[in-house]
Amino acid sequence: MEHNAAGLYLPKTAKVQSVIEENSQIKTFALSLSMGAQPTVFRFQPGQFVMVSMPHCGEAPISIASSNSRTDSFDLSVRLAGRLTSAMHSLQPGDSVGIRGPFGRPFPLDKLVGTDLLFIAGGIGLAPLRSVILSCLADPRFSDNRITLLYGSRSPADIAFCTDLAAWEKSGRVDCHLTVDHGTPDWKGSVGLVTSLLDTVAPNPTRTKALVCGPGLMIRAVLAELTCLGFDPNDIITTLERHMKCGVGVCRHCHLDDKLVCRDGPVFTLAELQGHEVMELAT
Amino acid sequence: MERFNLLKKDHLIGFLRKLAKEYRIIAPVKNRHGDTLFTPVTDLDNDEIDLTNQPQNSIKSFLFPQTEVIATYQSSTPDDYTFTEPEPSFPPTIFFGVRPCDLSAILYMDVIFLKGKKDPFFLDKRRNSLLIGLNCTAPFANCFCNATNSGPFLEFGFDLQFTDLGDRFMVETGRSSGERLIEDRPQFFTPSTEKDSQARYQSFLEARGGFHRPVHLDQTLKKLAKGEVDESVWSFLSERCQDCGGCAYVCPTCTCFTISDQPLSPTNGERLRSWDACTFSGFTRMAGGHNPVHRATGAIRQRFLHKLLYDVKQHGRTSCVGCGRCVGICFGGTDIVRFINMSCQGELYGT
Ligand SMILES: Cc1cc2nc3c(=O)[nH]c(=O)nc-3n(C[C@H](O)[C@H](O)[C@H](O)COP(=O)(O)OP(=O)(O)OC[C@H]3O[C@@H](n4cnc5c(N)ncnc54)[C@H](O)[C@@H]3O)c2cc1C
Ligand code: SF4
């Protein structure tokens, strides 16, 4: 068999190193590929995803959520959605999962150097953006970038990645703004859609690149709002979620007109999506 | 320079018998129910090789099986979970009597499975396969390979290609692997003459003029490229599509698949790849039931645009090879010829 042929669909075993409970729906798993006792090096770029296997459950695409500077292990943040993700939520340190990848076209990190970075996330959508934020913070090329994060959650109890948010705020490197759809009596922060935070931070569209990930409806509202603010469609970058099976551009479940999200994405600029029938753009 | 040989029809079985010593032979065989299907030939004396009727199946299922094990897994405890790739097991095989449409479909599958990251399962089978084509001298009722540029005679892609000249076959060589099949068994062949070449050309002209259905694919391709196909065409076809997937299953170029786990015991199982169809409503549905493809028109539109627009853009060819099988199988009347005809007429439908 040819060198690059074997193993295209064959998962490698990865071990759970640690589990963090982000909220009642989301857990973050640190994983390392195990080859004997030594962890194997795993390289990827922010925005890429892996196909995760659980026994008898098949596979699901999950974004890599950690920094690309870390190569001995990587994080996956997983929201309870159905069969496979429920099985993952019972994983303990030392347990095994199957991993294929990394797959997909990453965020264009090189093009982000020297611009203001505006991250806009909803719920689990912070997972792939967390990878970009952490990678930028670890990369000296980004030491002068202004970094702003707008993060929307359903309720205060649903806010995930609290440890990261606290650390970013504390370091002074990331200007974090949180909002919730539904407040509680002890919630002092802002209430409303994540788009309402855009008025507060008033980004400069000529020197800012916006990176957006979240539920379809949120992406739709944010893309529309950024366009209104005068952002160039090339400066708005999002990552799409679709049904996927192979992850390598053959099975075609993730078709988006003539594109395949697993191969041509999942990261797309708004300019690349315009003119296609994309539910995240529908008006 | 192409080489031409003649094989007397009386010698065909003898030639195949020699080949069968080294290869598994898969050919159109008429079974006891009267169905002609590509089948492994196990008994050359009694199996009825049928080169007259169109095989109901293509050879897709041999190179890309309807269900195939792509990994086995075992997990006895949560910390133990390992995968094994199945050993290749495809024997050296000769596909005999493959018509231009079906052979052209294999060339398309080569692009899909081998152009980028090579698919290990397809590659193993393809490497162990030789293709002996059979030019079509009398197109069948639903055929339109003349419109898709994949017949009635094929120019390349085969190892050997036969043309029926009455009491003999003219045999063209397409590849050195095909040439060896002849060189190692010279006793069956005689060199062809100018007269045979003329007879072949005459037969080509007759075949080209023998199509029963006018299918103006070129017009449709132009309209698709310009985005001029009316929405009402899609909604009409979608309304009538019964979501059965029959077209995708009989189609020699439909290669969408799904992957699923089949537990064999609590501690082990198989990961299977199986044929899927982009027209199924679950094809694009995500966790939580959300579907990014508009059910009313999106699925059938994807089927035809993929074959007639996206593949043209990306691979320079349509992935419809004009075999006509979906025309015969679709009881909703929403097959590709229906679409091509509707899109050419430029009328509004059912609105
Ligand atoms: C590129 C990409 C990155 C993603 N990143 C994350 C992430 O970081 N964290 C996270 O929690 N979720 C992520 N998702 C969504 C996640 O893949 C789905 O929630 C998951 O597949 C649901 O599987 P399930 O078995 O738990 O759900 P079920 O509803 O039981 O799934 C049923 C079947 O549908 C298929 N399926 C359903 N929805 C999807 C989907 N959206 N994508 C692919 N297959 C699907 C599955 O293969 C499964 O076989 C991502 C999706 C994509 C496409
Ligand atoms: S779309 Fe229909 S006519 Fe075209 S190759 Fe497939 S089955 Fe044959």
Describe the protein's architecture and organization.
- The complex is a heterodimer of chains A (283) and B (351).
- Chain A has 283 residues and is an alpha/beta fold.
- Chain A folds into 2 domains: 6-103, Beta Barrel (Elongation Factor Tu (Ef-tu), domain 3), CATH 2.40.30.10; 109-281, Nucleotide-binding domain of ferredoxin-NADP reductase (FNR) module (Rossmann fold), CATH 3.40.50.80.
- Chain A is built from 7 helices and 16 strands.
- In chain A, strands 1, 2, 3, 4, 5, 6 and 7 form a 7-stranded antiparallel β-sheet that branches.
- The longest helix of chain A has 13 residues, at 216-228.
- Chain B contains 13 helices and 13 strands.
- In chain B, helix 8 (217-225) crosses helix 13.
- The termini of chain B are far apart.
Helices and strands in order:
The complex is a heterodimer of chains A (283) and B (351).
Chain A: E1 12-21, E2 26-35, E3 38-39, E4 49-54, E5 58-63, E6 74-79, H1 83-89, E7 96-103, E8 116-122, H2 126-137, E9 147-153, H3 162-171, E10 174-180, E11 190-191, H4 196-201, E12 208-213, H5 216-228, E13 236-239, E14 255-256, E15 259-260, H6 261-264, E16 267-269, H7 270-273
Parallel strand pairs in A: 8-9, 8-12, 9-10, 10-11, 12-13
Antiparallel strand pairs in A: 1-2, 1-7, 2-3, 2-6, 4-5, 4-7, 13-16, 14-15
Chain B: E1 4-8, H1 12-20, E2 24-30, E3 36-40, E4 48-49, H2 60-63, E5 67-74, E6 82-84, E7 93-98, H3 100-114, H4 120-127, E8 129-134, H5 145-148, E9 160-164, E10 168-173, H6 176-183, E11 189-191, H7 194-208, H8 217-225, H9 231-240, H10 246-250, E12 257-265, E13 268-275, H11 298-315, H12 325-329, H13 336-345
Parallel strand pairs in B: 2-7, 7-8, 8-9
Antiparallel strand pairs in B: 1-10, 1-11, 2-3, 2-4, 5-6, 5-13, 9-10, 12-13
Bound molecules: flavin-adenine dinucleotide (FAD) and iron/sulfur cluster (SF4).
Residues 250-253, 307, 320-326, 336 of chain B line the site of iron/sulfur cluster (SF4).
